[in-house]
Amino acid sequence: MKTTTETYRLLNSIALLGIVIVLLFVELSELQGTMLSNLLIVLLGINFMLIRYEKRLKNNQPVNFMSLLKDAYFVISYMVFWLGVALIIYTLIVYT
Fold first, then answer.
1. pTM for this entry
2. Among candidate residues 71, 80, 67, the one with its CA nearest the CA of residue 52
3. How large is the angle between the packed helices 30-58 and 72-95, nearest 10 degrees?
4. What pLDDT is recorded for position 3?
5. Residue 35 is inside which H or E element, if any?
6. Cα gap 22→28, rounded to integer Å
7. Which DSSP state fits 64?
8. What is the pLDDT of residue 2?
């Protein structure tokens, strides 16, 4: 079975929905809520990168990493992803 970007986007969207539901309806400690919020940022970045990758693939544009770096939408998504990772690391440092 060949895995497509649609499968990755579906799994990512389910994870995003699960995190939002947990954040809204479960009583969490400050650390747990912060970590889930940061994970939400990371998953949003991944989702946007997958959307742009899939669009470039459908338009027969190059999809190697260097060509994607010329795409502003992808770069912003990439920065959102790393912002989320940085916030997770920062949260771990502050709370431990």
1. 0.81
2. 71
3. 160
4. 66
5. helix 30-58
6. 9
7. S
8. 53
Give the model's pLDDT for residue 54. Answer: 85
Give rounded-to-5 percent helix, strand, coil for the chain: 80, 0, 20
User: How many other C-beta atoms can be found within 10 angstroms of the C-beta atom of residue 38?
Assistant: 20
50, 5 Cβ separation under 8 angstroms: yes
What would the pLDDT profile of 36-92 be if each residue is shown by its tens digit?
999 999 999 888 888 888 888 888 888 887 888 888 888 888 899 999 999 999 999
Distance CA 7, CA 73 (A): 21
Cα 31 to Cα 6, 26, 43, 73, distances in angstroms: 32, 13, 18, 31
46 in Cβ contact with 54 (< 8 Å): no
Record the tokens describing residue 92, joined without a space.
């771990």
Whose tokens are 């079975």? That residue is 1
